[in-house]
Amino acid sequence: MTIFSPHTRENFGKLRYAAEDHLKASWAKLDHWIEERFEDGDVAQAFKPDATAIEEAPIPVSAHAALYAVVALLAIFILWSVLGSVDRIVVAPGKIATRTPMVVMQTFTTSRILSIPVRPGDHVRKGQVLVSFDPAFAEADVASLEHKVRSLSAQTERLEAELANTPFTALPTDSRERRTQGDIYAQEMASYSAELTQRDSRLAALDSQLKANYAAISGLKQQQEMSTKVVGIYQRLVDQKAGAPLDVMKAQSNAVDVGMKLTTTIGDTRKLTEQRTEAQAERQGFLDKWRSDHNQQLVQSRQDLAEASETLTKAQRMKEFTALRAPASGTVLQIADRSMGSVLREAETAVTLVPDGADLYVEANVPSRDISYLKVGQEVRVKLEAYPFQRYGTLNGTLMVLAPDSIPLKEGDESKLVYRAQVRLSENAAELAKKGLHLRPGLVASAEIKTGKRSIASYVLNPILRTADEGMREP
Questions:
Q1: SS3 for 225?
Q2: Which of 24, 179, 283, 349 is disulfide-compatible with 199, CB 3.0–4.6 A?
């Protein structure tokens, strides 16, 4: 029984012949490739095992080059470590200090800010306005006190004129206060003159009456003397029988009347004298009281004037404080963190100035283990904690002072010995402020003191040698 049809067998035959042709062509290509790839003896080498081929293969040029490069680099590193050097640095923590104190401008009283025309870093001249405050209250106080001083001054001058009984003039062009005191002077002197005139008039009237009484007494005494003589004459006539007794009686009656009138007049005169003495005393009392009152008023007025003048001086000084001015030329270090219109309390810091030429330095604490490396005059690089050196850079300085003895410095629960050192900065505070570095006493700093140079090899080997010498020594 036939499985494949004639047509199928024909197709298989064609496929077999095609496969044989393809295989022959492939062997021919392989022979050609081997002939091109390998020359004499290379065919055997190509069919060796991989391990044997690698072992017998020559060393590549790149491997030789890499080895030589490593050896050269190692030699260069050793040479560089021996000949090269690095700075020997002693690090000493410390802080900024100054021999010239900062100028701290504070408010004298609670004030409202009107303007702040300066900013940190600005250089200001002596007398330049730093902060302006609202002057309304200060100006009102000054105006009120000036009025009071003018009034008290005019009042004092008026009282002095009244006591000295001298004129007090107040012209229309004079101040209102003086014109007011001029009116008071006129009223006071008019009242004084009227009172004194009244009392003087009474004294004059009493004097006139006393004068009349004295004249009357003198006349009555003469009449009394005459009456006595007349009585004697009539009495002798009666005794001689030449006169009538009635005439004697009439003469005696007349003498009695004259005596009574004389007695009455003398009594009236005594009363008038007492009245005059009393009136004179009242007049003198009025004068004494008037002078005493005016003296007291004058003393009080002078005292009030002195107090008002002192208060005015203070108020004028306060008015000057409505503008804080720089007491010396310098650089603005800090201003109060306030906006326009806000209030500064009494004695609150408004502006801090660094005077021109302020001598800043770093007060550093050098560990006792590093003191042998230091000497005055060495260069110092200073880093500030508040101003990162990556952004602001470092400060240059010189080691100027080194303490001869150590002092204990307590850090936490431990205490260690340090030497105090002073580093003078090469730039003053004003120059640094222009760079944005607003230095002030107390800023934490780190002084890196350059003590010399050492080789890189010693830098690398010293820790190893120290460890080798001090290590593995525990009991």
A1: helix
A2: 283
